[in-house]
From TrEMBL:
Keyword Metal-binding: yes
Record-given protein name: JAB domain-containing protein
Keyword Chloroplast: no
Domain JAB: start-end pairs: 27-122
Upper taxonomic lineage: Bacteria, Pseudomonadati, Pseudomonadota, Alphaproteobacteria, Hyphomicrobiales
Length: 179
């Protein structure tokens, strides 16, 4: 498999326009996310954040899921059936809020491949560096992306801090990657 990270994409035609919506992620969900990414070892892995979204578009993460997938040092792939296994078991009202995946190095911008792999444009996309090795204060060093008009924008530090906020509360996790 090719390293998806090598597939650079063109820059945006217009700048990201900051939005009012906030995605809240309980510290417990964040810990689960790092743990799931680190369990993949020196391989990229993809996860999903699910939870509630209010009428204004604000979300709170309640469930972190790792579907069945193939993983390699520079790529991962989730088949639609593998994602369906997760989605069909979600509680009523649970919506996809973000896709999460890891990169080998410090580069956390979407590749062309990442743009194509996004299953929902209403979700955010978070890219964790160094296979999820934790460092810094979230979301420092993490690539937070949001779709606007025609592009998955990589948010600047200030915008990312405003858009995704760590909060209290509980979250569950699910790992279907291993037999
Ligand atoms: Zn990627």
């Amino acid at each position: 498999m090719d390293a998806e990270d090598n597939l650079r994409r063109p820059p945006p035609k217009r700048p990201y326009a900051p939005v009012d919506q906030v995605l809240k992620v309980p510290a417990q969900a964040l810990e689960a996310t790092l743990s799931l990414l680190q369990r993949a070892g020196d391989r990229e892995s993809g996860l999903f954040w699910y939870g509630a979204r209010d009428a204004a578009g604000n979300g709170i993460v309640r469930h972190v899921a790792a579907p069945r997938q193939t993983m390699s040092w520079g790529n991962f792939h989730i088949a639609p059936e593998a994602l369906a296994e997760i989605v069909h078991r979600l509680p009523q009202g649970c919506k996809p809020l973000a896709q999460v995946h890891s990169h080998p190095g410090m580069r956390v911008e979407h590749s062309n491949y990442d743009d194509r792999m996004m299953s929902s444009r209403r979700s955010l996309s978070l890219v964790f560096p160094s296979y999820g090795a934790s460092r810094g204060v979230f979301p420092e060093g993490i690539g937070v992306h949001e779709w606007q008009i025609d592009y998955w924008h990589l948010l600047g530090d200030t915008e990312a801090r405003r858009r995704v906020v760590v909060t209290d509360g509980s979250a569950t996790m699910e790992d279907r990657r291993w037999p």
